[in-house]
Amino acid sequence: MTAPSNAFAQPSISDLATFAKAVDYSLMDRLTPDPDGTSDGNDHNTRQVFSGHYVRVKPTAMGHAEYISHSQALFAQLGIADALVHDNGFKQLFSGDLSQAPTPMVRYGWATGYALSIYGTEYTQQCPFRTGNGYGDGRAMSVFEGVFSGKRYEMQLKGGGPTAYCRGGDGRAVLRSSVREFLAQEYMHALGVPSARSLTLYVSKSETAARPWYSPNSYSANPDIMVDNPVAISTRVASSFLRVGQIELFARRARVNAHDNARLELTAIVAHLIEREYQSEIDPSLAFHQQIIELAKSFRKRLSQLVAHWLRVGFCQGNFNSDNCQAGGLTLDYGPFGFCELFDPDFQPWTGGGQHFAFLNQPAAAEANFHMFWLALRTLLAQDQQAIEQLDEVRSGFKVEMQQQCQSMWAAKLGLSEFPQQLFSQLMPLMTQTKLDYTIFFRELSHIPSDIGSLKKSFYQATSAVLDQQWQHWLDQWLDLLANEKQDLDTIKINMQLTNPKYTWREWLVAPAYEQAKQGDYSLIEELKQVFNDPYSEQEQAIEEKYYRLKPDHFFNAGGISHYSCSS
Ligand SMILES: Nc1ncnc2c1ncn2[C@@H]1O[C@H](COP(=O)(O)OP(=O)(O)OP(=O)(O)O)[C@@H](O)[C@H]1O
Ligand SMILES: [Mg+2]
């Protein structure tokens, strides 16, 4: 007998370390660590960070970590063996203990500072020092970088304990918000929406954190009790976690010459952003000011496409500040988010977020973030009038680009090759007046019915004969437009069903998953993961009966389901 091949051996954390070997650290070395911070990573107290791109910080491991879930889809995409999730070293790392990480992994994490703008207004008062120098990753820290199939990814713990930017917070995330973020990131990816991804989710069996939340059956707008929830650490994965707010922070410092290296630090972070997120689009041999203009153009396009996707799938980010706006065009920070069930242009699940971040206001919110991005880049072009003019043109073209992306998205939702201005302007008020379910409506429409019978499945209330007539009239006009399309109806149907998901995020169906997880039962998380993994397909009948449903009456206005004011 020959010895068993070690191809079947249990993979270990050393296998993950091999991906880190491919990392070109010279890219990272261009960024500067905080010169005043502790280099050993024991830097957990709120303080001002005056310069440098990151602070080293060791995560604080959770007591008695228990595995909840991982994303098989992401493991497969990265080329990591699924069985690695059973390795103890792997679990240790992604539940916050870096002490055994093998070389060339580093045994500290890194947190970054960022600035905050809300709807285009610079804020500093959020920071306890009123200077903006205390604001950044308060509970997020990256712990690993690797090159997987030629692409570089960063892995970041969320809830891994306090950092210099924690502003007095505990640095933890609770199970509830971690389950939501873990599931939502992978769901968005399956929907085809650019997003940070989920690697793993672990919960502590011994540590809890109290957060304001809602008592059972509460209809209160604000949380009415404090609830102890187990703490959890989820790991998210992205090409980078660079945010518009981060570029802004260095631009603000450069503008006022906050220190000798302020301008250099801004140049370095922008070069880093190009390298991490735009390498395939921006020619590195271009002069740097030309690269900056290309960067603005590329980001404008990605951001507009991202928001058009959000509208397509009914997603509302809820708090689309510059610090929650990832600079490569990915969705980031799934705390205050929600998905529109009953169609409402003003849908906003996060009570702290304000109407300017509501569902159909997101294109304007994106523009405010783009404005801050443009301002930051402009700082770098101070002496170059011609380049400034070019950059300003990119800025002024935002509305048109956003409108084009949205119009082609609405056309695709309606199975049309061109945006039907008149039909669309009739549709929006009809949808609002009728009180219908956004997902079910467009999915039923994707079957191209000849009368409105099946569309009524999506209506939350009975309609009058007059309204029915208006719908039928609208439908007839739409069918006429379809008949003029080059493609046949069967092809249009298929494309519409790939644009309009069957399965959406329904908070009242997700809440039981985190509630049961609190009791140690993770089966519903797995079920949701499966359903969300294939949102455009017709799934089994039992799944359809459970998940393709209108929101029951008693969940309307229910605290923690229809709205929430705490997202952490
Ligand atoms: N429990 C906490 N301890 C320390 N800092 C926190 C905590 N909760 C939130 N923060 C920090 O407060 C700021 C605002 O929080 P917000 O809810 O936008 O972000 P988040 O959900 O923690 O993170 P991210 O944007 O990284 O997904 C962030 O800088 C965040 O790191
Ligand atoms: Mg955030």
UniProtKB/TrEMBL annotation:
Pfam families registered for this protein in UniProt: SelO (PF02696)
GO molecular function, one term: manganese ion binding
Keyword list, A-Z: ATP-binding, Magnesium, Manganese, Metal-binding, Nucleotide-binding, Nucleotidyltransferase, Transferase
Active-site residues, record numbering mapped to chain: 323
Keyword Transcription regulation appears in the UniProt entry: no
Catalytic function, reaction form: L-histidyl-[protein] + UTP = N(tele)-(5'-uridylyl)-L-histidyl-[protein] + diphosphate; L-tyrosyl-[protein] + ATP = O-(5'-adenylyl)-L-tyrosyl-[protein] + diphosphate; L-tyrosyl-[protein] + UTP = O-(5'-uridylyl)-L-tyrosyl-[protein] + diphosphate; L-threonyl-[protein] + ATP = 3-O-(5'-adenylyl)-L-threonyl-[protein] + diphosphate
Cofactor: Mg(2+); Mn(2+)
Domain of life of the organism encoding this protein: Bacteria
TM spans (from-to): none
Residues holding ATP: 136, 138-139, 158, 170-171, 236, 243, 333
Enzyme nomenclature, EC number: 2.7.7.-, 2.7.7.108
InterPro entries xrefs: SelO (IPR003846)
UniProt: Mg(2+) binding residues: 324, 333
Keyword Ligase: no
Function: Nucleotidyltransferase involved in the post-translational modification of proteins. It can catalyze the addition of adenosine monophosphate (AMP) or uridine monophosphate (UMP) to a protein, resulting in modifications known as AMPylation and UMPylation.
PANTHER family referenced in this protein's UniProt entry, alphabetically: PROTEIN ADENYLYLTRANSFERASE SELO, MITOCHONDRIAL
Family in the record: Belongs to the SELO family.
Name of the protein: Protein nucleotidyltransferase YdiU
